[in-house]
Each structure stands twice: as structure tokens, then as C-alpha cells.
Amino acid sequence: MEYAQLDANTSVIDAYCGIGTIGLVAAKTAGSVIGVELNPDAVKDAISNAKRNNARNARFYCGDAGEYMEALASEGKRADVVFMDPPR
Predict the structure, then answer these.
(1) SS3 of residue 11 by DSSP
(2) Residue 67, phi then psi, degrees to nearest 5
(3) Is the per-residue pLDDT at 85 higher than 90?
(4) Stretch 20-48: mean pLDDT
(5) 31: which DSSP letter?
(6) 86: left (phi over 0), alpha (psi -120 to 50) or beta
(7) Is the pLDDT reported for residue 88 higher than 80?
(8) Where are the alpha helices (DSSP H) in the chain?
(9) Is residue 76 within 8 Å of residue 48, measured between CB atoms?
(10) Residue 32's pLDDT is what?
């Protein structure tokens, strides 16, 4: 997190977010966090974890992270920081 230099103006994508651990840590400092994960059960857990941690600036979506980022780019949108921890 230190290297990412997050602040309230930073938008973050947590690609392959799993249950949202990295994204929720980033949400403590970043302005907004979007987590993307293919596993629907993990996304449900990420949403639950966000509620438990009162992370109102974090959203989690079920889908392929690569496709999500390609779609975002094609719309002319971008994130300031992307954390990637793909499945092995």
C-alpha cells in the first residue's frame, strides 16, 4: 500500500479480488475501490466483508477481471492503481 501512495483522490481496481482483502485494505485510504472476481461465492463474501468493515467506498463485481478492465478502457475510463493477484 505504501508504494501505491493512495489518497482520497485515488481510484483503485483490485483485480482477481477473491474475498476482497487487498481492496478493503486499500479502501481505508483510497477514494474508491472496485474489486472484480470470477467466483460468485467469493464476491458475496467480499461484499459481506465490506459491510462488516464499513467500507462504503468499495464495490465488488462478479466477472472476469481482464474483460472488466478492457471494457473500462474502451469506455475511456481508468483507475489510478491496479492491484493484481491472479489465481495460480
Answers:
(1) strand
(2) -65, -40
(3) no
(4) 98
(5) S
(6) beta
(7) no
(8) 21-27, 40-52, 65-74
(9) no
(10) 98
Number of residues written out for the chain: 88
User: Which amino acid would we find at residue 77?
Assistant: K
The pLDDT mean for the chain works out to 96
Contact 23, 35 (CB under 8 A): yes
Task: Decide: 47 and 41 in contact? Cβ < 8 Å.
Answer: no
Q: Which distant-in-sequence residues (6+ apart) come within 8 Å of 15 by Cβ?
A: 36, 65, 66, 68, 69, 82, 83, 84, 85, 86
Distance CA(3)–CA(33), nearest Å, equals: 17
CB atoms < 10 A from the CB of 40, how many?
10
The grid coordinates listed for 22 are 487487498
The residue type found at 49 is N
Average pLDDT estimate for 6-20: 97
Each residue's pLDDT tens digit, 42-83: 999 999 999 999 999 999 999 999 999 999 999 999 999 999
